[in-house]
């Protein structure tokens, strides 16, 4: 029998995610200073939320973390042992309504090395179906990506971030298009990942969800405006100051 290609989406095996350190991180795009002097520590195995106004640099910060932006300063990912798996759920993506690609095609193209549109091998197919079930998308593997609703697409993106279970999970506004049931599924998944020691870096606008789920929260608007435990940091005054802060401007 072939060894399974992918472990279950969320395995109960104890694991520890990495710590992440941003040291004097800056990002200049054109003449705009997107990030300036970011010093930030994300502890291993914590759920760490990043909040802030539109354009404040949250997605840019995670692009620096993922090695996708030409930043200054240092980003360190300190793994407890050998480097583990990084999962990434990007901000909502649009798909052409006519795109002839099913949910199964899309996920198997992302998680296997096989040419797109070839049916995945049985263990991969089983892992994809399990991940879809975890995000409440059972029975929808044959649907076209272009025919999904925004929330369904978001659930598929979440499923791909879980395959296989990540040790570091980076989420960019994962709840944006989710309905109440989807938000509940998301919260349950984050709880399960936190319980297995995954480090979760989570960009979010829903501050109530951040209060419920996050161990720590950073307020970001070009620089770090606050950083700490949500109950202590998310005071009405801090939130008002953060969201009225004007980020960007010429360097
Ligand atoms: N490739 C780019 N070139 C120039 N400017 C960019 C580029 N990408 C992003 N920006 C600018 O960088 C700033 C920060 O964008 P970013 O997407 O990081 O913000 P954000 O905090 O994630 O915002 P939102 O909450 O709206 O998603 C914005 O002003 C944006 O216009």
TrEMBL record:
A GO molecular function held by the record: ATP binding
UniProt cross-references to PROSITE patterns, sorted A to Z: ABC_TRANSPORTER_1, ABC_TRANSPORTER_2
Domain ABC transporter: 20-247
Keywords on record: ATP-binding, Ion transport, Nucleotide-binding, Transport, Zinc, Zinc transport
InterPro entries, per the entry: AAA+_ATPase, ABC_transporter-like_ATP-bd, ABC_transporter-like_CS, Metal_Ion_Import_ABC, P-loop_NTPase
Keyword tRNA-binding: no
Protein name: Metal ABC transporter ATP-binding protein
Protein species of origin: Shinella pollutisoli
């Amino acid at each position: 029998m072939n060894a399974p290609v992918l472990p279950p989406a969320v395995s109960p095996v104890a694991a520890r995610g990495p710590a992440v350190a941003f040291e004097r991180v800056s990002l200049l795009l054109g003449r705009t200073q997107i990030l300036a002097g970011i010093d930030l520590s994300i502890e291993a195995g914590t759920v760490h939320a990043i909040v802030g106004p539109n354009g404040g640099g949250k997605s840019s910060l995670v692009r620096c973390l993922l090695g996708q932006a030409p930043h200054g300063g240092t980003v360190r990912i300190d793994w407890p042992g050998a480097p583990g798996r990084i999962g990434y759920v990007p901000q909502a993506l649009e798909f052409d309504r006519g795109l002839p690609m099913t949910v199964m095609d899309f996920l198997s193209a992302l998680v296997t090395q096989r040419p797109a549109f070839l049916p995945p091998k049985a263990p991969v197919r089983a892992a994809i179906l399990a991940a879809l079930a975890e995000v409440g998308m059972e029975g929808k593997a044959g649907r076209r990506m272009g025919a999904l609703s925004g929330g369904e697409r978001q659930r598929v993106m979440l499923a791909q971030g879980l395959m296989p279970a990540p040790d570091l999970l980076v989420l960019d506004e994962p709840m944006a298009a989710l309905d109440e049931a989807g938000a509940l599924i998301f919260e349950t998944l984050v709880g399960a990942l936190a319980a297995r020691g995954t480090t979760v870096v989570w960009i979010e606008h829903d501050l109530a969800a951040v209060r419920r789920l996050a161990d720590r929260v950073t307020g970001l608007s070009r620089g770090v405006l606050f950083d700490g435990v949500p109950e202590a940091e998310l005071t009405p005054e801090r939130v008002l100051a953060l969201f009225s802060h004007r980020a960007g401007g010429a360097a």
